[in-house]
Specification:
By secondary structure, this protein is of the alpha/beta class. The chain has a seven-stranded mixed β-sheet. The chain starts with a strand and ends with a helix. It is built from twelve helices and 19 strands. The chain has helices at 57-67, 85-88, 91-97, 107-117, 187-205, 209-218, 239-251, 271-286, 300-309, 326-337, 357-368, 384-403; strands at residues 4-7, 10-17, 33-41, 45-48, 77-79, 102-105, 123-125, 131-135, 138-144, 154-158, 163-167, 226-229, 258-265, 290-294, 310-316, 319-320, 323-324, 344-351, 371-379. A hairpin with a 2-residue loop joins strand 8 (131-135) and strand 9. The structure holds MU-OXO-diiron. MU-OXO-diiron (FEO) binds at residues 82, 84, 86-87, 149, 168, 231.
């Protein structure tokens, strides 16, 4: 097994998980996910973040430890930056193998150690700015960064190597294989991870964007040479890239995002789709890039990522039983929960014997704080007049997006 040295006293250990099981029970991970842990050595040895018992992850962690001539029993301190079970699910087993290691977390984190794993002893609470002296000149500092991604979260800082152990923050979906560092991946691989970082951000972190901005400001004074998240690439060549990427994603929570349009559509018998095709012609005439997602065919995980990224949204759906097309209602509910706010939106759709989607959709959009272009609905199949009007609506939305600052 390859050893991933960050410095002569800091190593990245990682486990790749490939599974059909959904991440958090919600989000698909067809290209896997990595669970990264880190060893920091002074005279004492700290392990930062753990794994859950998930498709061989503990064995992978054990093998990675062996590759640096360590075993679980050698660990003096287990630092848990975040208690979500993807990083801690194997804690009780670890404790059996190593009863002496002190478990370190914030006060809220220690509460979760007790409630999730029923461990009551050998626990140490740390607060913002507290340090842990490993001996041999190696001192770790803890900074509380709440809601990245749960309230108990902290990051761990090794000033000597300039390594920031950030757990979920600056993370991504996607398994790593036998490489972990940013300079080991080519352009195409980086493009893949950029998409998976956006999807991870939109799915897992987006609701906490204010806290992302606070944490980036708080950590801004550190001379960060390596960003070491617990999912995804380890950034030693260009740590600023992933920090800036997260800052950009967080900024989209309160203002215009990219000058793009995310089209979300569903159609029962193709009549709404005929109208949508006209809207798309209008968007294309203005040259605004767009993504297109059919619900429920496409999982909302990807829909959410493009919605987060785009300043404009098109919702195209028929009326279904006097209300919204149900898969669209689900997508809008996820958008609300994930704080996809501040978009410009055009809604269109056809109805059969009577409308009804508009009323429900208008109420949903109010909760999302979206700015609507006047919606367009028609009965049955669209007429030539409808199609011309829909094309004009597409142009209208695209022009608004082009003009955004
Ligand atoms: Fe990777 Fe919020 O756990």
């Amino acid at each position: 097994m390859k050893t991933h040295l960050i410095s002569d006293s800091v190593y990245c250990l990682h486990a790749d998980v490939h599974t059909d099981e959904l991440f958090e029970g919600i989000w698909p991970i067809p290209d896997g996910v990595s669970l990264n842990s880190y060893i920091v050595r002074g005279e004492k040895i700290a392990l930062i973040d753990l794994v859950r018992d998930w498709i061989g992850a503990p064995q992978q962690l054990k093998d990675a430890l062996s590759s640096v001539n360590l075993a679980f029993s050698d660990i003096d301190y287990l630092i848990l930056n975040h208690l979500e079970p993807d990083h801690t699910g194997w804690l009780a087993e670890f404790r059996k193998l190593n009863p002496k290691a002190e478990i370190i977390a914030t006060a809220k984190g220690i509460n979760l150690v007790k409630s999730f794993y029923k461990i009551e002893t050998g626990l140490r609470i740390v607060k913002d700015g507290d340090t842990l002296d490993l001996g041999g000149g190696k001192v770790l500092t803890f900074f509380e960064t709440p809601n990245l991604h749960w309230p108990e979260t902290m990051v761990t800082w090794d000033a000597e190597s300039g390594s920031l152990f950030s757990c979920d923050a600056f993370g991504s979906f996607g398994a790593l294989g036998d490489r972990v560092f940013d300079d080991e991946f080519n352009e195409a691989e980086h493009a893949f991870f950029e998409k998976e970082t956006l999807r991870y951000y939109a799915n897992i972190v987006s609701s906490f964007s204010t806290f992302v901005e606070r944490a980036i400001t708080k950590l801004g004074g550190l001379d960060i040479k390596c960003v070491c998240p617990s999912h995804g690439i380890v950034w030693r060549k260009n740590p600023k890239e992933i920090i800036d990427r997260y800052a950009r994603y967080a900024s989209w929570a309160k203002g215009p995002a990219e000058k793009e349009i995310a089209i979300v559509w569903g159609s029962m018998y193709g009549m709404t789709k005929l109208g949508l095709d006209a809207v798309i012609r209008g968007i294309e005439q203005e040259g605004v890039p767009y993504s297109i997602h059919r619900v429920p065919d496409e999982n909302v995980s990807w829909v959410l990522a493009d919605a987060w990224k785009s300043s404009g949204i098109v919702l195209a759906m028929p009326t279904y039983e006097y209300a919204m097309f149900p898969p669209m209602a689900y997508a809008l509910d996820i958008f609300r929960r994930k704080h996809v706010f501040g978009k410009k939106v055009l809604r269109i759709g056809s109805w059969g014997w009577v409308g009804g989607a508009k009323k429900e959709c208008d109420a949903a959009l109010e909760g999302l704080k979206w700015e609507p272009v006047e919606c367009y609905e028609w009965a049955g199949a669209p007429t030539a007049e409808d199609l011309a009007a829909l094309e004009a609506k597409g142009r209208e939305l695209a022009k608004l997006i082009s003009k955004e600052q």
